[in-house]
Amino acid sequence: MPRLTRKGKKAGLPPGTLVYTGPDRAEKVAISLFDYDEKNVLEKRVTLKEALKFVRKSTSVTWLNVTGVHNPQIIEEFGKRFKLHPLVMEDILSTDQRPKIEEYDDTVYLVLRMFALDKNKRRMESEQVSLILAKGWVLSFQETPGDVFDGVRDRIRKGKGRIRKKKADYLLYALLDAIVDGYFTILEHFGEEVEHLEERLVKDANAKILHKINDLKREALFLRRSVWPLRETLSGLQRSGSKLVAHDTLPFVRDVYDHTIQVIDTVETLRDMVSGMLDIYLSSVSNKMNEVMKVLTIIATIFIPLTFLTGLYGMNFLNMPELHWHYGYFFVLGFMFLLFLGELWYFRKKGWM
What we know:
Shape: rod-shaped
Largest sheet: 7 strands, mixed
Distance between the termini: 47 Å
Helix content: 40-55%
CATH architecture of the largest domain: 2-Layer Sandwich
CATH topology of the largest domain: Beta Polymerase, domain 2
CATH class of the largest domain: Alpha Beta
Number of domains: 2
Strand content: 5-15%
């Protein structure tokens, strides 16, 4: 879900100033390492110093995943040791970035949003992920523990597919593909929520359903804002011409781009469905109000002539012959009852009730 950030803390500061803008966190920053080639693979938790040794000495592919970007000092140390541009470090710490790609002399930087489903709370969770590609290594920065990269890790461990035979650019593609595939899981859950809410809406439109519709509308808008720029990002990666991205990796990037288009189409469809549900809710409430007004109008119409008769014979004038008639009271009651039945018959004939 969208959240408020503290970008006001950066007001007036020069570009490249490292200020964390996300929510307060107390977790310790963790670094995991995968170092692999076609024959061997090494997986372990490492310190920053240990990670640097692998990047400097290894001739294989190295993937460093950093969990936690709430400590600007650690990000600054990473930037110094890996020679990252100051604006890249600033963007890593600014956790509400729009998905984008930036190319530098020796690196390619991508930022996008990663979505996951909290199965316990049945709600959508999102965080910013920063990916940095260089010759022989990939850096990934995420805000919190837990991600969608387990499939990539499993393929590296077991040597499945092409990943152990390819270079770092293929690893970057695999991470992008895992993030985009995670969108489909979210959209499936979102679609189920929409269908369930539609069923409830048809049976009973109430204030709780209206609140849920508004929640879904905000989620759909947030998904749209996160996915639409990703199309431009992947398109930019295809057209970049960077020496870090091999020509035989580009078809796989195009495949992720195609998946992104599918996600965008699905998001737009769900967004239209949610907007339509709001219209259905308003129509349902209006129809209920019309039914209530219809019943009240019929009741009022029935009692208007009856009220007239009771008012007429309740005026207490002395010269009213019907008041002295022995059967006058019963005659008036009978006439009022027949008038009531006649009105009911007429309303039913007209289809008003």
